[in-house]
Structure formats: C-alpha cells, structure tokens
C-alpha cells in the first residue's frame, strides 16, 4: 500500500483527473497543427532520415559502441530510444538515473545520428503498480490483474498520471538542449492499453458524463433508458458500460469516447510539459490509435498532440498501407514519420528487397523517416522471436546492407523534392465514432443485422479508386478538419452524422463544393440513436431526398453510368424518395428500378448520393467521372501493383509485387538513380523502383 505522506498529492491528482484533464474533447475544435511555422530548424523539406529503433538497455557498453559504428557505416541518421524503459530511468520511485542514457546520446551525436527521445509511459514499472494499485487493470468482471504483459496499466489513474508527468519533466529538462535530440515522443502504442473497471474508473466516468450531459434527464434521453426499464434516477445509479459487451450502442459509444478523451488528455498533459520545458523540439509519437484493445479518436486530436504524424509501419497490402498512412497524416502539413518500420518482425526474418520497396512506397505517401524495428534481434521477453537488423549472435544481417542502400539513395532523393509536401486534392471522410458505433461488442444488439459491412473496409473502398489512379487523397474527420480546399469530398458509410460533420458538408456544398455520400450514411446522431427526422439525418435537404427504405437484392446490384454497365458486390441498397434531387443512374434489378445515383444542386455546389454501400466497383466509375469537371489532376498511369507520383518533373515508380511489372512510357526517359536510358516501356523487377525524368527535362 502507498504511504500516507502522498495522500495530499493523490487528492490533488484525483481532482485534476476528475476535472479538466479528462474533459470531453470539443466536438469541433479548431485544427491548428503544431507545425513547423516559426521553427525553421525542425525537420522539413529536403530532409530524409533512415535509421532504427534502439534499446540500449538490452546491450552491454561494448555492444553499444559496436552497434553505433554499424549504424554509422550504414549511413543511419536517426534513431528512436527511451521507449519501454521507464524503470531504467527511474528504478525506484523518485530515484532517477540518466548517466547511462547520457553516454549513449553522446556517442550517437559523435556519429552524426539524431535521436527521438521517447517518454516511456508504457509500460509502467513494477514498483509503480506495487505502490499504487490504482494503476492496475480491473476487468469488467471485477478481477484485478497484475501487470502480466506490456501496456497493462490504467492510464487514467491519478498517481500514474502524476508520476509519468514527473518523469517527462525530468527527461525534457535534461534533454531539451542536448545536441543529439531531434524530437520527443510519448507513451509508445498508448492506444493498446486496455480499459479498466475499478471504483475509481467509475467515478471518473461519471464525472465525464456530468460534464458532457449536465443533468440526469439529458443522460436518460441520450441513453434511451426508457427502453428495457433502465431509467437512471441519480448519478449513483450509473455503472460503467461493459466494453466487451453486452450493452446498447448509446452506452458503448460514450464508453469509447470517455476512454478516447482520457487517452488524449494523458497525451496533452505530456505535450504541455514539452511546450514548457522543450518548446524548441517537436513531438512525434508512435501511438497506435486504432489498436483493437481500446484505441482513441486520433482524427479529432492529432493537432493537439503531434507535430508529425507517426506510426509503426508494418504493411501487408499496398492499399491498406496507403490508407493507414494517410489516416495518420490526417490534417498535418508536415510529413509522416515511420517511428517503427518493417525490417522483418515476429517470426519473420525478412525478405530481400521488401524493406527497400516499402521505404520507396512511403516516399510516395509523404514519409520522411524510416526507423527499422528493430536493431538487434530480441533474445527474450515477449518478442524473443522478433528479428531485427542484427542477428541473435550480434552479426549484422543482410538487412543492414539493404537499409544502407536506400539510406544512401535517399541522400540523393532529398535533393529532388522529397519528402513530399503537395497537398491532396481529395478528402475521404473517416469517423472513429462511426467505426465504434458500427462495431458493437457482443451481446443482444440488432446493429450488425443492419450494418452488415465493415466500416473501415467501406472507407478503404472509397479510397481505392484514388489509390489505383495514383491520386493523393486525405483521410480526415470532416467534423474536425477544414475541407474547403479540397476539390472533392467523399463520405462513405458515415453512419453517425454529428452536427459538426453535417455543418461542414452543408457549408462546403453551399460554397460550391462537390460531395459524394454513400448508403448507410447519416442514420444516427451523436448519441448513437437513429434520427427522428428524414434521413439522411441533418442533410436530407442538402441531398434533396429521403432514404428511409432499404433492402438487400437477391442478385448483384447493377446499373449503367455514362454508358458503362456496372455490377456491385454488396446487395444492400436504399430506395431514394427524390425531392429536388435528380437521378444519374437507376438500378437495373430492383423492383422499381429505383435511383442508384442522384445529384442535387444545393447553393453553388452538388451533393451526389450513391444508394448502396461503398464498393470500389461502383464508386470508382462515379468519382472518375468527376475528375475532369472538378479539375482533379490524374496521376501517372500504372498497371496493378505499381504505384507512382510525379515530383518536380520526375516520376517515381514502385513495384509493390514480388514479380516483375511493365509500365508503358510515352516518352524516352532516364532513371535519375541509375542514369539508365529507357524507351517504350519500363520493366521493374520484383520490389524494384525507378525515378524517371524525360529527355526533354
């Protein structure tokens, strides 16, 4: 048990946790990024970084010296250190040891390697759990868990929050002006820390509800408690909803919002420390906001907690990889940092050429730094079969040479317009809250009987045509980020249409913008309940129609658009009752041949509705028909499996496949990396790349 001498501090920390620290995130907070304006010394144009994640706590002093020489010979320019190491900085409460880290930083600086210093809030050390059991996770069954695995810590516990802030102050005071340090990161993979159900968690959740709703009457209305005799008479009757189910949508969405706000508040607290003690350095953190354990609403908070969007980049397929990167980029004007970058992995030794290919792929999608996870293969712990750049016997693997190769190549590319800064022309609306609502926990719930599709897959389906056409498309929350600069906004399956998102669409279309929205959209309000107004809720007049009726066809949906016959893969369709909207296409095989696509003039713009689920085979031809009228510049033409962008007159091609590909060329060209002359067609070997400039240039 903790000693009584800390009780006053705990009381103060509890008051903070129940007050503004866990206050709800404003629904439409202005998105003003912590960009590089006013900080010309922060990483920017013409700077690319290749390196690794490094845990010196695993290495002896002699190994550290040799490791750094390996990095230097490979041309590495950045490492990330400090994560996962709280008890190495503070082995006992209040006893800090920094000399070991100072020495490693000095060696990195001497080797010309810059360092991201992670504030290692996760996992918490064992002494913290033993002294402050409020940091332990309590399951929804009421079982207290000791920290048997990583990240198993309650990040809302006031003592945890107080102690990680104290560590952050100590580290930032010490390293803010260290010449090796280039940025700070916070709480590695914080989105993966689980929900907890202690008495203290319930108190904090109730306080959050009181701030959100203000009265029991408002809470009862939001939660539809008249159903199933669940009326709440006073705040003492409120229980924590079960994150693992069962429970209705209205309670589940508020539980997810609460934990999201709590996570964001913990990160904002650390960024406040940075602003006070290290305002000269930016923030770039590996946070994992879409982690399955809990996650948080990154799309509505990125501007409060980061300077550079950063992630652990472990791609499986190119479309999914591009989508995830653009989601992490969000509304940042700055590039993306791969604070962890694929170099093999758990049970995967690696495949020659694959990491280099994904690095070039990252360049196409705004990436600036590429830090291999991890440097040395792990001998023990939960990642003992995770393979890094250095083999278990300390011999550098072939992967060191591969990283050295593209590290050298990137020194040339950073003089040719990389990292990329060109803003996307198109925005894809993504809502964490629609995702949460349409993915309810197990239990009696008719949600999935209606919303049978996967929300994230539908958003990817809307993203897919632009990916295939090599056109940049932002993935943003349109209720948070400005959309006026985009030539087209696509809103796929946005089930929960809150006031901020609806008003953003209304303003954008009225001012002359074009929006494409798909079926399943605007069915529920902020509480998670269906609208009691004409659907699509809050936007029926903008789209000029009503969408209440829906059915599922017995045969694949089909219609003709601009003379081309199209067939879908999802049988869901809505019967559109048209008011001011006019049909652009009608279904061939629905009973009344109802409208498949409609357009409505609203103000100076157009609101287009696709009366089925977002699916690439249908939405692709629709958005492509808009490229010309909207002035959307098409990207380079490539065969499937090859992605490309044109940067400063040169076109970078990346073959993402483990087989050869051929690209047809309209002009003779030269590969700027190899000086090879190419005419007629470009043959790309498996995982190969080429940077072509025409002879005219």
From TrEMBL:
**Domain spans labelled Glycoside hydrolase family 42 N-terminal:** 53-409
Q: Where is the Beta-galactosidase trimerisation domain?
A: 425-631
Pfam families documented for this protein: Glyco_hydro_42, Glyco_hydro_42M
The alphabetical list of record keywords is: Glycosidase, Hydrolase, Metal-binding, Signal, Zinc
Q: Which domain of life is it from?
A: Bacteria
The record's listing under PANTHER family reads: BETA-GALACTOSIDASE GANA (PTHR36447), BETA-GALACTOSIDASE YESZ (PTHR36447:SF2)
Listed GO molecular functions?
beta-galactosidase activity
**By what name is this protein known?**
beta-galactosidase
Signal peptide start-end = 1-29
Give the catalysed reaction(s), semicolon-separated.
Hydrolysis of terminal non-reducing beta-D-galactose residues in beta-D-galactosides
Q: InterPro entries, from UniProt?
A: Beta_galactosidase_Trimer (IPR013738), Class_I_gatase-like (IPR029062), GH (IPR017853), Glyco_hydro_42 (IPR003476), Glyco_hydro_42_N (IPR013529)
Instruction: Give the source species.
Output: Sphingomonas morindae
What is this enzyme's EC? Answer: 3.2.1.23
Its family remark reads:
Belongs to the glycosyl hydrolase 42 family.
